[in-house]
Amino acid sequence: MGEGFRSGFVCFVGRPNAGKSTLTNALVGDKVAITSSRPQTTRHAVRGLVHRPDGQLVLVDTPGLHKPRTLLGERLNDLVRSTWSEVDVVGMCFPADQRIGPGDRFLVRELSSLRRKPMFAIATKTDLVSPERLAQHLQAIQKTGQDEGVEWAEIVPVSAVAGDQVDLLATLLLQVLPEGPAFYPEGQLSDEPEETLVAEIVREAALEGIHDELPHSLAVTVEEMVPREDRPADKPLLDVRVNVYVERDSQKGIIIGKKGTRLREIGASSRQQIERLLGTPVYLDLHVKVAKDWQRDPKQLRKLGF
CA-CA distance, 38 to 24, in Å (whole number)? Predict the structure, then answer.
């Protein structure tokens, strides 16, 4: 590493659906976190890696802090708060297409307890608003920090979808990180296990087009990833067996669809992304199972990895 090389951990926080995962993917330059229009789809701290000649950013995309209604919700909030205390910089995301509300102010108030840690305010989704609206939004962000006792190191407007000012944000974040060596080798995009990334790809595909409470009732686990035996070396095939869990029998029918059509769509969409991720042909075997009220059951939460 050259002299002046900087490295460290950056955590993005914000209300659910504030654009944290999309921003993480844009900075990394590839997909490491699932994105969905459904709030509260991120369920663990995803680490995305940004490699630059002058430094390395380790981005930690956390679940949205929210008022928990289940044991799962409580555990996700605990995960967010423990992550804050361990990173070098915190970036608070304020979506430009939404006015700053009580949920945002609550989060900023929580951040005010983290002394001597650089705080960035990031105005996300700037492509969705006019310049006039954006100017008002940036002023509101500044005032919210003043009201809640947080001094923003920077206020940066970005559009992860359009790519506007994403590189600038990376540069500004690196400038406040300590000097030190890279934590991960060049080219690695995430430190998530392959099984976790595969499960997240399937969950994202299953989330498409479903509404109401069902998104929160979905959990996905990878049971097995094994090379198919007796295949020639130039024609490998990986058997991937995945369980999709719901909380009630009625939800099982929604995921499977009429005569299995929806489950086949989920499988086809997932398989393409999994093959791209793993670099090998895949046979994807999906099963839908009922784990009754798993979000509230400590034993089942442990089984599903929470």
Answer: 17
